[in-house]
Design a protein that fits this description.
- With 742 residues, this protein is mostly beta strands.
- Helices cover 4% and strands 36% of the residues.
- It is built from 2 helices and 58 strands.
- The strands form 15 sheets. Strands 28-32-31-30-29 form a 5-stranded mixed beta sheet, with no helix packed on it.
- A hairpin with a 7-residue loop joins β10 (169-171) and β11.
- The longest helix is centred in the N-terminal third of the chain and has 16 residues, at 8-23.
């Protein structure tokens, strides 16, 4: 779903710089600092990413064929990255895309120009649905440092089925000014001016449709181009692979494989030494839904096809489970003829693997069988178990053209790399793709940050510069977190909720370091876990329930730490419970259907309506309570504006210093200020941005800049109660961004 994330290398460099300043005379250091501050705008911030390490689906990885150590990666919702082998880290390339361009954070395809090493192209567009905007192509002459943009008239689908196929974008090997783009619903497009303008390739024979996969891959074999087609029916009557030798006339490739196992071409790689094109196939585009697949190679000089499938899907595992899967990634070794690596995909029973051949596919070796993993840098990859899996959703795969033993493959959570074909570790520094759902900055304790995340549950960030040492919260392990709350007057007590197979709620008495499941939970919790709140002293819990399809259910209350639960009929179904930070008897809820604020003064047993006639009709409207005060409530109602109540929701006044507010949070007050610092994602002028106010929302200063926007950032924001100016911002695919004044 970026900024230059902080790495250990950066920390060490920063420490050295600080030591150098300390070594100078104190007066001189203060003078230089003052001079620098005087030259900087009031809202100047340094933005970094809280390190977790990956956490999302890496859908493509591509080494540059003519530049040692240069590679690019793409993600389904979190933008694109460039790899620097010298620093061993990824640099984000699309953080400049802002609020209105949220749909462009998904990268459908990447292309590089072998003849011009500094050129790189991105095809952007997260969803191809009617409610999403059109796609765009970004083109760069400096490896992604700067971009020119061409808006398309078609939609792309980087977070839809088939997002791991590809690449769908290709520089024509005969002419660097010509590019080809395969779309899902609009056929094949062609540009003759390096991606500035695009037209349909009318001679391409396959007919697109509104719901299909369209062109799944484009690959050059010498001067001939091949295009995979994802909408064939698997019979010999419909082709799924086409070629052109002149860029004008396209034809089906004769003799191509057919059948369920070869229905959808997923990936392709060309061995220029043997002049053989390798293709992986599946019965569905993936990453989910594949149960059959195969691998074939085409001798491009003779037209001979040979099936070289390492293992045919369809057997049974030791426990009797069906060993169904498809094939995904494909990569050739540019230095060794006949050396190829392919991946299985959607192989849940026997677990996915990479197969490697050194004899053109006659024999294969499973690299999983000898793999030794070191995930100490990103401990969450164990998923609460003793050891990590080899991976899943493996469709991104590449072999370094300058190092035959350097293989990289993507999973649904990370990129793994090896330099010796045996020892594997995440090759993920700098790439952060988390979709963030909840953030808490505790007032005390080791960690300045707790997070609730999509797919990887809850984390305790004892450091911002390293992945949490405990990994994801366990006992129980969650997939996506749906709720995270801390008792304001007893910060050691924290509760969480989320999707899990062994319980959906848990509590911590040590600030989130360790957890225990609730002794009981309402029956609906398994199918519809929602947001949860703890009252100010941690003696009462309110848990709301919302199914993934949006269906809302009655909230439940517990006064015994989750041992028993009772329904709260007067609480608006599906609403987010908000605890008063100073009064243990008070809770609040905002009925977004009616535009009504409800309150409880009896510890959440009953709720009654207070203010009415407020903005309604959007479940993303949010109420937050100012810390250390009773009844000081702030309502972010998107483009309807920001509202404040100082009487527990009896009345609200509109804050006229901004015209849109999407999410709001609080942090330590500025020196001399009598109100906490307020942080907001909203609009005071024309654009949606991140703002801070140190005077109770009378005035605002923008604290992000045009290079640091991260698409949609409307989920949650919070300041640090111990450090004035520090703010934590949730993104939808670029992890947790945190900023501090320069």
């Amino acid at each position: 779903m970026s900024t230059s994330p902080l790495s250990r290398r950066t920390v060490l460099a920063g420490t050295a710089a600080a030591a150098a300043l300390t070594a100078t005379p104190a007066l001189q250091g203060r003078t230089h600092a003052a001079e620098r501050a005087a030259r900087l705008p009031a809202g100047t911030y340094r933005w970094r990413t809280a390190v977790i390490g990956g956490t999302g689906f890496v859908t493509g990885v591509l080494f540059h064929p003519t530049v040692r150590g240069l590679a690019y990666a793409r993600t389904d919702i979190g933008g694109a990255y460039r790899w620097d082998d010298r620093t061993a880290r990824w640099t984000p390339l699309t953080d400049h895309l802002g609020w209105d361009d949220w749909n462009l954070l998904g990268v459908e395809a990447i292309a590089v120009d072998p003849a011009h090493p500094d050129r790189v192209y991105l095809a952007l567009g997260t969803y191809a649905q009617s409610w999403a905007g059109n796609g765009a192509v970004l083109r760069s002459e400096d490896r992604g440092a700067t971009w020119a943009r061409s808006d398309l008239t078609v939609k792309l689908g980087a977070n839809e089925d088939g997002r791991g196929t590809g690449e769908r974008l290709l520089v024509d090997p005969r002419d660097s000014d010509t590019l080809w783009l395969g779309t899902r619903h609009d056929g094949l497009l062609r540009s003759t001016d390096r991606g500035a303008t695009w037209k349909a390739a009318d001679t391409f024979p396959a007919a697109p449709n509104a719901t299909g996969q369209g062109v799944t891959l484009l690959v050059a074999a010498g001067r001939t181009l091949y295009a995979g087609w994802g909408d064939a029916d698997g019979t010999t009557a419909t082709a799924n692979l086409f070629r052109t030798a002149d860029g004008t006339t396209w034809e089906p490739v004769p003799g191509q494989p057919a059948g369920t196992a070869a229905k959808v071409p997923v990936r392709a790689a060309y061995d220029r030494h043997t002049r053989e094109l390798y293709l992986t196939y599946a019965n569905a585009p993936g990453p989910n839904g594949q149960s059959d697949g195969s691998v074939h190679k085409l001798a491009t000089a003779t037209g001979k096809w040979t099936e070289v499938t390492p293992v045919k899907p369809g057997g049974t595992t030791e426990d009797g489970s069906a060993d169904s899967f498809g094939y995904g990634g494909a990569a050739v070794d540019a230095r060794r003829p006949g050396t190829v690596v392919v991946s299985t995909n959607n192989r849940w029973a026997a677990v996915d693997t990479l197969y490697r051949t050194t004899d053109g596919g006659r024999t294969w070796t499973s690299l999983k069988d000898s793999a030794v993993f070191d995930v100490s840098e990103t401990p969450y990859l164990k998923w609460g178990e003793a050891a990590p899996k080899f991976g899943w959703w493996i469709q991104a795969l590449a072999v370094d053209p300058y190092d035959s033993r350097h293989i990289v493959y993507g999973t649904g959570a990370t990129l793994y790399g090896t330099r010796d074909l045996k020892r594997w570790a995440p090759q993920i520094r700098g790439l952060e793709e988390t979709a963030v759902r909840q953030l808490i900055s505790p007032p005390t304790g080791e960690a300045h940050l707790l997070s609730g995340l999509g797919d990887i549950g809850v984390m305790y960030h004892e450091r911002l510069t390293a992945s949490p040492s405990r990994g994801m919260a366990t006992n129980p392990v969650f997939g996506s977190a749906t709720g995270l709350a801390q008792a304001a007057l007893k910060p050691s007590y924290v509760v969480r909720a989320g999707w899990g197979d062994h319980g959906n709620g848990a509590f911590s008495r040590d600030g989130g370091r360790t957890w225990a499941p609730f002794a009981a939970q309402p029956a609906i919790a398994k199918d519809a876990p929602g947001p949860i709140a703890a009252n100010a002293d941690g003696s009462v819990l309110l848990w709301s329930f919302v199914h993934w399809d949006g269906t809302r259910y009655p909230a439940h209350r517990s006064a015994d730490n989750g041992a028993t639960w009772t329904e709260v009929p007067t609480f608006p179904k599906g609403a987010t419970p908000v605890a008063d930070p100073a009064d243990p008897a008070a809770f609040y809820a905002y009925d977004t259907d009616a535009g009504t604020l409800l309150a409880s003064t009896d510890g959440g047993r009953t709720f009654t309506a207070r203010a009415t006639g407020l903005p309604a009709g959007d479940t993303q409207f949010k109420v937050v309570a100012a810390p250390g005060r009773s009844g000081d409530l702030w309502l972010s109602a998107k483009w309807n504006g920001l509202y404040r109540s100082t009487d527990g929701g009896a009345g609200f006044q509109k804050v006229d210093s901004c015209w849109a507010s999407y999410t709001l949070g609080f942090g330590k007050a500025a020196d001399g200020a009598d109100f906490p610092a307020i942080y907001m994602v909203g609009s005071t002028e024309t654009i949606t941005a991140v703002h801070r106010s140190d005077d109770g929302a009378k005035t605002w200063v923008r604290i992000n800049d045009d290079a640091h926007q991260w698409g949609w950032t409307g989920e949650v924001i919070t300041g640090d109660p111990r450090i004035h100016g520090r703010v934590y911002l949730a993104t939808n695919g670029r992890g947790i961004q945190y900023g501090e004044p320069v």
